[in-house]
Amino acid sequence: MSMFKTVRGMRDFLPRDAKELIYVEQVTRELAVLYGYEEILTPAVESYELLAAKSGEEIRQRMYVFTDIGGRKVGLRPEFTASVARLIATKLRNAPKPLKLFSVGSLYRYDEPQYGRFREFWQANYELIGSDQPEADAEILTISNHLLKKLGIRNYYFKIGHVGILRGILNQEGIMEEQQNQIMQMLDKKRWKNALTTIKQLGASRQCLTTLKKISETKGKAAFDILKETEDTVQNYRNAVAAVENLRQILVVAKAGENKFETLIEPGFARGLEYYTGIIFEPYVPELEIALGGGGRYDKLIELFGGESTPAVGVAQGIDRIVLAMKKQKAKFKIQEEKRAVVIPVTAEMKTKAFEISSMLRNAKIPTEMEVVGRSVSKALSDANRRKVAYAVLVGPEELEEEKIVLRYLTTRKQKTVDIKELVKKIKAAK
After folding, report:
1. Is the pLDDT of residue 29 over 70?
2. What is the CA angle 202-204-205, rounded to 5?
């Protein structure tokens, strides 16, 4: 028995699991095309400085970081946005805006492995760069809704907040950004008590504490009612009021037309990444406690990496978590199983001809395997049945003299002798 097993938090995807993951990935790609997002590929290894710049303390502590042979401190990407922001600040600096970029691939975080949380995971990212308008945020929300709908996921809802509400209050109270980031980390962990104590210690006013306490208790599904309530709560904080109004405009646009989706508005909601400046959201299903993805607006990140001041909004779709939700809900993976053929030489002398026929079928775009293990015809046929192959092509000496082969339909167990030059047509007609 081999001693080797996967590294903790890493997984093997066997053919069936891989197909499910690839199916969801393919749907994210189709939507990218539909909404006009161009695919880019960025490296899995980036400089530590880039990845750590604005990711937030929690992710910094969980990054796979190492020194490479050249003595550079590098890390495996824990998310895509930093790489995209680097591109915008450098190679795409002069590209016309808006830029709509899509990326998909594996990411790495040294999390404690648990249900739905692994150290290597897959995401699809949509980033819309160069617009500060509410319709840009609405588009990113709409793509997320469209994806879940298209995959047949039921009863999902979007938890939605706006970083500008809390930041607006804390800024007006004179609390420095560094301390705000620590407070946001606490809120991300739902540690409201600690956050309020910290804010009090930083000398915030009584009005501030009352306002924040009220915000922590405000949440609900009736989006516009909750926003009105929040606006009344933060009325003494000008920028917080503007943030509530911004969120209202985004939702008016996002819910227009046929875009019906459930929302849970939570003005006190924070996400672990420090770079958000506006709307933040996460989709959930009742069957899982973990978010299926997450996104938001980040207007200062590109500037941080030396680019122009550039507004941006994006979302990461958690591909493996979406697969998990689909399995929980018994949603259908619409994986197109192509009907396949197997070519079996009846005798050893027929191998070359069988090889030739296999190539002919593949050139006609018919998925074809050849019997390569040297099994008897009956064993090769039972193996083809087990693997749900649709057609068997038997290449025997007698038929071959007349340029014919035997085509066997494995589902009906019927067979007929066919001219080799008619074979492609016969198989395509049977599909």
Report:
1. yes
2. 155
Pick the CATH number of 15-328 from 3.40.50.920, 3.30.930.10, 3.40.50.880, 3.40.50.10260: 3.30.930.10
Q: What is the β-pairing status of strands 293-297 and 341-345?
A: unpaired
Q: Where are the domains of the chain?
A: 15-328, 341-430
The SS3 assignment for 58 reads helix
Which pLDDT does position 418 carry in this prediction?
Answer: 93
Name the residue among 62, 41, 151, 45 with its Cα closest to residue 105: 41
Listed residue (156, 279, 145, 154) closest to 221, CA to CA:
156
Distance CA 199, CA 180 (A): 9
Check if the beta carbon of residue 341 is closer than 8 Å to that of residue 367.
yes
The per-residue pLDDT for range 236-253, each reduced to its tens digit, is 999 999 999 999 999 999
Chain-wide mean pLDDT for the chain? 92
CA 311 to chain centre: 22
Q: Is the pLDDT of residue 323 over 60?
A: yes
pLDDT, average across residues 75-88: 93
Strand arrangement, sheet containing 312-318: 38-39, 99-108, 120-129, 312-318, 293-297, 279-284, 157-162, 262-265
Distances (CA, A) of 347 to 230, 354, 376, 396: 80, 10, 9, 7
- Give the architecture (CATH level 2) of 341-430: 3-Layer(aba) Sandwich (3.40)
Residue 2 pLDDT: 67
The HSE-up count of residue 368 (CA atoms within 13 Å, CB side) is 23
